[in-house]
Design goal:
This protein is mainly α. It has 6 helices and 2 strands, in the order H-H-H-H-E-E-H-H. It has helices at about 15-35, 45-55, 60-70, 70-85, 105-130, 135-150; strands spanning about 90-95, 95-105. Helix 2 packs across helix 4 (about 70-85) and helix 3 (about 60-70) packs across helix 4. The longest helix has 25 residues, at about 105-130. About 10% of the residues are buried.
Length: about 150
């Protein structure tokens, strides 16, 4: 019986190749989906902060700086632009009156939903036009595997 090839760190070549391929494909997919909508003149850092607040809920500028791994001043400037655009707002932290919490406004939620809808619409159409039913089932099975990996 033939042995599986492995990398110097002891993982199979197929696992290393699959990891590379998944990373590259997801990067390309993310980039392609971003091309499907008007970014509304938001920078990548503004988009990242807005998306994080939408996903994780309200946070202080300090908390955002820590999780985004950038300087407090950079996040403060980013939040300032998002506030000016009406995408986020600030309120006093009820647990600590010295802190302010930043949260996504209704306008910010609508902005993000429009972007998601545009990207998903493009992907839906591409899957319909370029894949067979069997291929779409294969993709569904693959996403279930990826979800299992993410949850491990």
């Amino acid at each position: 019986m033939r042995e599986m090839a492995s990398t110097p760190d002891g993982v199979s070549e197929s696992a290393a190749r699959a990891a590379r391929e998944v990373r590259v494909v997801f990067s390309r997919l993310r980039r392609r989906m971003r091309e499907t909508y008007d970014p509304g003149d938001l920078t990548p850092s503004q988009t990242s902060v807005l998306s994080r607040l939408d996903k994780d809920g309200e946070a202080s500028v300090s908390d955002l700086a820590a999780v985004e791994r950038v300087r407090h001043q950079s996040v403060a400037a980013t939040v300032g632009v998002l506030v000016e655009r009406g995408l986020v707002s600030r309120r006093q932290d009820p647990a600590d009156g010295r802190r302010q919490l930043v949260f996504v406004t209704d306008g910010g939620h609508s902005f993000l939903e429009d972007r998601r809808r545009a990207g998903e619409g493009w992907l839906t159409r591409a899957l319909e036009d370029q894949c067979t039913e069997e291929e779409r089932r294969t993709l569904l099975a693959a996403t279930a595997l990826l979800e299992r990996i993410v949850r491990s």
